[in-house]
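Summary of Year 1 activities. Much of the first year was spent building the evaluation harness for sequence design. The harness presents a backbone, in tokenized form, and records the residue chosen at every position. We chose the following record to illustrate the format because it has been used consistently in internal testing since the harness was completed.
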């Protein structure tokens, strides 16, 4: 039987009907979303709820009480980045969390507000970027893109644990939309968003390097100015000492004590090269790849590469950090051809814990999300639109 005959067979031909395919896709999406919503409800009653946010809440509370936001151990020498209430970020984030620490005596209550901010940031990113890049042409595609984002375990984990990556996702999206808008106002928005993101968590600072490499001088200058102005604005609340301490806190950060959830390329290479050597190698290689992407690829693609690079070079990278990958995924949908490999990347990002596998749990918990992230990264480099193939883009 030929393929044409098979496709014409009663019952089988329905599988090739676009309407049937669309209905099946929506059914699978609905099932996945119900499952993710159930996970969210279960984890909101367990220790995972607000686990990461507890550090921001505690740092904000310490500021209000006049206590140090960094521990003695962080300043004394190497320490692993794995402990509840352990604050690893610049003082700026502690200032942002202070109002919630003042309003709520329990971080598990305060995290509901933080989770709501992340939820809105994720939806706004998908809708705004999807529309700007021509991915959303009707309500069906809108539902698929928004629903697809919330089926990724990393997004649900961010909502549960209360980390900052959905907020960073929103800031990265604002930066890209500003650049796409063009002109002075667009670059100011982009620079301010990247500057704020860098003060929340250091690795977004790589986007300032991207701005310089891409010739976006005004946006780069605004990023640096935003960092300076926001830092000055926090001094009445933090004083100068935490800002002087933070470089030491960052330098003392060591490899994770447990690699059960660690996805960073640095962590994978550490057993072979040692932590510092692996960290240097990954950083240098990432900068070289970023420079190549800026020179050879369309701006949308190189921006997506820069976002993925900023995440992958972080020495402490866990699966929920990959919520940021929503933005590069959207840009890949719009600017990469072919796109079949995105299904592989998406499948990898669906990896998660499966305790029933015992000692083999790392395959789903670590290996699969790592493969998903690297597939997205490499796919952008290989199939992303080149500069010579791109329509005219806004000039700096």
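For this record, the design step produced the sequence shown next.
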């Amino acid at each position: 039987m030929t393929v044409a005959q098979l496709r014409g067979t009663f019952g089988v031909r329905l599988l090739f009907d676009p309407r049937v395919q669309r209905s099946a896709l929506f059914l699978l999406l609905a099932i996945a979303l119900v499952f993710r919503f159930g996970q969210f409800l279960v984890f909101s009653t367990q220790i995972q709820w607000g686990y990461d946010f507890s550090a921001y809440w505690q740092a904000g509370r310490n500021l209000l009480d006049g206590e140090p936001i960094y521990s003695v151990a962080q300043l004394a020498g190497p320490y692993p980045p794995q402990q509840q209430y352990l604050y690893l970020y610049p003082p700026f984030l502690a200032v942002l969390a202070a109002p919630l620490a003042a309003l709520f005596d329990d971080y598990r209550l305060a995290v509901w507000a933080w989770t709501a901010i992340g939820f809105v940031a994720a939806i706004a990113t998908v809708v705004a970027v999807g529309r700007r890049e021509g991915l959303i042409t009707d309500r069906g595609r809108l539902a698929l893109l928004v629903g697809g984002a919330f089926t990724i375990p990393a997004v649900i984990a961010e909502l549960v644990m209360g980390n900052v990556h959905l907020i960073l996702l929103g800031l990265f999206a604002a930066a890209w939309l500003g650049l796409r808008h063009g002109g002075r106002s667009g670059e100011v928005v982009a620079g301010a968003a990247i500057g704020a993101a860098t003060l929340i968590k250091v690795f977004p600072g790589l986007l300032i390097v991207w701005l310089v490499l891409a010739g976006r001088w005004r946006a780069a200058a605004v990023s640096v100015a935003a960092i300076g102005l926001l830092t000055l604005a926090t001094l009445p609340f933090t004083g100068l000492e935490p800002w002087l301490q933070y470089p030491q806190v960052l330098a003392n950060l060591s490899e994770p004590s447990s690699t059960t959830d660690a996805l960073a390329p640095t962590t994978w290479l550490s057993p072979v090269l040692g932590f510092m050597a692996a960290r240097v190698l990954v950083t240098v290689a990432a900068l070289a790849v970023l420079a190549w992407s800026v020179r050879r690829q369309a701006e949308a693609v190189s921006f997506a590469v820069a976002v993925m690079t900023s995440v992958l070079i972080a020495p402490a990278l866990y699966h929920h950090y990959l919520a940021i990958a929503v933005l590069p995924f959207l840009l890949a949908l719009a600017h990469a051809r072919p796109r079949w490999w995105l299904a592989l990347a998406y499948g990898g990002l669906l990896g998660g814990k499966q305790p029933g596998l015992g000692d083999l749990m790392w395959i789903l918990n670590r290996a699969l999300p790592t493969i998903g992230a690297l597939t997205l990264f490499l796919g952008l480099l290989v199939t992303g639109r080149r500069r010579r193939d791109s329509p005219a883009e806004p000039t700096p």
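Confidence is low (pLDDT under 50) at residues 392-396. Quantitative recovery figures across the full test set are reported in Table 2.
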